[in-house]
Design brief:
The complex is a heterodimer of chains A (about 290) and B (about 500). Chain A has about 290 residues and is of the alpha/beta class. Chain A contains eleven helices and 17 strands. Chain A has a seven-stranded mixed β-sheet with strand order 12-11-10-9-13-14-17, sandwiched between helices. Chain A has a five-stranded antiparallel β-sheet with strand order 5-6-2-1-7. Chain A has a three-stranded antiparallel β-sheet with strand order 4-3-8. In chain A, helix 6 runs parallel beside helix 7.
């Protein structure tokens, strides 16, 4: 029974410090998956359930690609696993797929690890016939992922870094404003990345009058609408990101509440990570830099 | 009623049987058990069980059977216990009930078989009825301790395939019945473990997870296939199951948590009973940090609600280290839907009851963490549609109850995932799947449903009763192809869904 349900790591590659690309065997997940959907992983018998948006699938091979940043115990533990190792559970695809429509020009704005879930959406937007203008940002040049892939599906690609080590020096919002000031017209914006980035992108696109889809990443347990842990306020109403989302109208999302709810278990998460690192001697690259 | 019955080799008359006081089941001391997650009642010894079974009068008209949603031959299995023939007893039991270890623990017997027991009536106290539930648990535990159930030889394959959506009490019952008829059975379970509410909801101290696992293992040994992490409606649409299977059963339960819709409900430290119990049970947060899933650990935890789920949360909170665990309920104790036994256990363990109180607003600090609930006092007015006196707020009586965590345990609605992705399926206004009461047939040919997806949040045994009826109808459907006159064809079937 277990053997058939186990999900093997078929490929693994470090894309940047603490950023890993994994290809898992997940035959159940691929058949009906569409861009924008996510999976829930559990990596061991005592493991927690964590949601990760799917970056890509290969239907014929029955595999999914996930890009995961090591930030806590589970993701660090996963990074220690090798090609050929297996994890017990991958559930999905979950959530409502992205509305892919031909609207004209679509602005795809991704930040950090958020470029991973943005890529399949940008690709689908392009394939359906939209003009795709993408802006991708990261703190620093070595943290970029999927730059070539994004370039391949975009009519225009703008790269920004917070520290100026690559592309434009500044934030993705600076780049959006420049595009708008240069007279660019955009029918739709899709933005994925850290909540604080999505918040400021949404504030700006509201000002510019561009409808905006955001993909939210609250804490989840079951991922099927059963626990309500992932509740977010959208337009004054409580919604469950796992079944009503994860994508919502960015102009209506209460980002401050989302960011606050993400801190619910910060103390526990910190302790668990410390404990794990103490026990195994594992380190996070980002922690070494003094961040 | 007979005047004399035989028992354990000795003859006892009714008077002698009536004179035996109910045999108490030993329990863990409340002061000890709040510090562990082990089961509270410890079980009968064979001697205790045989003595308790002697209290049954073997009534000619056994009202207890009528009172049981799955119609267990109660006098039969009790008589076998009295005679010390435990193997016979469990065989009688399993004719009607596949999950006695579960039902013996979580059925509300006081509202079913034990409510109508002749002894309880004679003593004018249903608490003095024959302890049918405790004996059911005894006989099931006995079998497990003997090394488990005998695996029957496989039935002749029918060549038909059945897909079951949801591995909870209803789905497991259907699976167990249909595999015995020779059908191929595949259970699609959304979570990583089967059992539904038995594993995510009901706490370890009330229903040890090893017991549920043993039942699932038994079904697997009979040939039932479990597909875990398979969310029907997402992983694959239910329509694709209809192509792959000759019949489908939907038993997806009532998994949609209700919230109070008061300001502050999204503060940190406020969570649904489902989330709290799922973290504590399925995800083993009681074993944190060995298990990876954390849980909100309040010092003062309020649980809002008065049902069994609320009791489970309040008692779990104590085991998670809360200094105070408070129940806040808008009606009085007499109106609480929880079982008396659960309320009693909660009180013994130190749970405080704040009755006729209702939260109207939740307050938090600058970090967005809960600091307390603003609660309004209530009084009982005229009876409402449920027959219970309606709680009415007393204007101006609001006050603050301090708390650093609050669990909302005010009920669940049917899981919307299947209805949302299956427009042909007829549902009620409140989201329950519409079925034929006798057969469990839905509006879609070949598709049956039962349990909480039909009833709304009810009980394990009612879900199993639904499963049992649906399985019988499905078997007839699979062998005859009849659909429109299926209910009439099932002449052997028990009448109404209770």
């Amino acid at each position: 029974m277990e053997g058939r349900d186990m999900h093997q790591i078929l490929f693994k590659k470090e894309l940047g410090p603490d950023i890993w690309l994994y290809r898992f065997r997940a035959p159940d997940v691929v058949a009906f998956r569409e861009p924008g959907q996510f999976v829930i992983l559990r990596i061991s018998e005592d493991g927690e359930r964590i949601p990760i948006t799917i970056a890509d699938v290969d239907r014929e091979a029955g595999t999914i690609t996930l890009i995961i940043q090591s930030v806590g115990k589970t993701t660090l533990q996963l990074a220690q696993m090798n090609i050929g190792d297996s994890i017990p559970d991958i559930t999905g695809p979950l959530g409502v797929p992205t509305d892919i429509e031909k609207v004209g020009t679509v602005l795809c704005v991704g930040g950090g690890i958020g470029i991973a879930p943005l890529y399949p959406v940008a690709k689908a937007m392009k394939e359906i016939g939209n003009r795709v203008v993408s802006i991708i940002g990261a703190r620093s040049a070595n943290l970029f992922i999927l730059e070539e892939e994004m370039a391949a599906v975009s009519d225009e690609l703008i790269v920004t870094t917070d520290d100026g080590t690559k592309g434009k020096h500044g934030l993705v919002t600076d780049a959006i404003r420049e595009l708008a000031e240069a007279g660019g017209e955009y029918d739709q914006c899709v933005t994925m990345g850290p909540p604080v980035m999505m918040k400021f992108v949404s504030i700006l696109t509201k000002e510019l009058g561009i409808p905006t889809i955001v993909s939210l990443n609250p804490i989840m347990v079951d991922g099927t609408g059963m626990c309500g842990c992932c509740r977010v306020t959208v337009g004054g109403e409580t919604r469950f990101a796992c079944v009503d989302g994860p994508e919502f109208d960015g102009h209506l999302v209460d980002f401050d509440e989302l960011m606050n709810r993400l801190t619910t278990y910060r103390t526990e998460e910190g302790k668990a990570l410390e404990h794990y690192m103490g026990e195994t001697g594992c380190r996070l690259a980002s922690k070494e830099g003094g961040h | 009623m007979q005047t004399r019955v035989e028992g354990g080799g000795s003859l006892m008359n009714i008077k002698e049987r009536l004179a035996i006081p109910p045999v108490d089941m030993p329990e863990q001391d409340p002061r000890v058990r709040v510090n562990n997650v082990e089961e509270v009642p410890l079980g009968y010894t064979p001697e205790m069980a045989m003595l308790e079974a002697k209290r049954c009068l073997q009534c000619k008209t056994p009202f207890c059977i009528e009172g049981c949603p799955v119609g267990i031959d109660i006098p039969g299995f009790l008589k076998a216990i009295e005679d010390g023939d435990f193997r016979k007893s469990i065989r009688i039991m399993k004719n009607s009930n596949l999950l006695p270890a579960v039902c013996g623990r979580v059925c509300p017997q006081e509202e079913q078989c034990q409510q109508v027991c002749t002894i309880g009536k004679a003593k004018k106290d249903p608490c003095k009825s024959v302890m049918i539930g405790k004996l059911e648990r005894f006989i099931a535990d006995w079998e497990r301790e003997q090394g488990g159930a005998l695996i029957p030889s496989p039935a002749r394959p029918s060549g038909k395939r059945v897909g079951i959506v949801g591995g909870g009490p209803a789905g497991l019952t259907v699976a167990g019945d249909l595999i015995k008829f020779g059908h191929e059975v595949v259970v699609f379970e959304a979570l990583h473990k089967a059992g539904g509410v038995l594993v995510y909801g009901i706490p370890e101290f009330r229903l040890p997870k090893a017991i549920v696992q043993a039942e699932v293992d038994y079904l697997e040994s009979l040939g039932v296939e479990f597909r875990y992490n398979f969310v029907v409606g997402k992983t694959a649409p239910i329509q694709s199951l209809l192509e792959d299977f000759d019949a489908v059963f939907i038993g997806t339960g009532a998994g949609l948590p209700r919230f109070m819709r008061v300001p502050g409900e999204n503060l940190l430290g406020v969570l649904s009973a489902n989330e709290y119990l799922t973290r504590a049970n399925l995800m083993k947060a009681y074993d944190y940090p060995k298990a990876d899933t954390p849980i909100v650990k309040g010092r003062r935890i309020i649980t809002v609600g008065g049902g069994n789920v609320a009791m489970d949360c309040a008692r779990t909170a104590l085991r998670m280290g809360a200094e105070k665990s408070l129940i806040v309920y808008r009606r009085a104790e007499e109106q609480m839907p929880a079982r008396l036994e659960e309320i009693h256990h909660a009180k013994e363990e130190g749970v405080e009851f704040h009755l006729l109180r209702n939260p109207v607003k939740l307050h938090g600090n600058a970090d967005g963490r809960l600091t307390g609930a603003e609660v309004i006092k209530m009084e009982l007015g005229e009876p409402d549609s449920s027959g219970r006196r309606r709680p009415v707020p007393i204007e101006g009586s609001e006050f603050i109850m301090e708390a650093d965590a609050l669990i909302v345990a005010i009920g669940n609605s049917p899981n919307p995932l299947i209805p949302q992705t299956f427009p042909d399926l007829e549902v009620t206004r409140w989201g329950g799947v519409v079925v034929n009461d006798v057969t469990g047939q839905t509006s879609v040919p070949g598709v049956f449903a039962g349990g909480d997806i039909v009833l709304g949040a009810a009980t394990v045994i009612l879900a199993m009763g639904h499963g049992r009826r649906a399985a019988r109808a499905m078997n007839l459907y699979l062998s005859s192809g009849r659909w429109t006159d299926l209910a009439e064809s099932l002449s052997l079937c028990r009448a109404e869904v209770r």
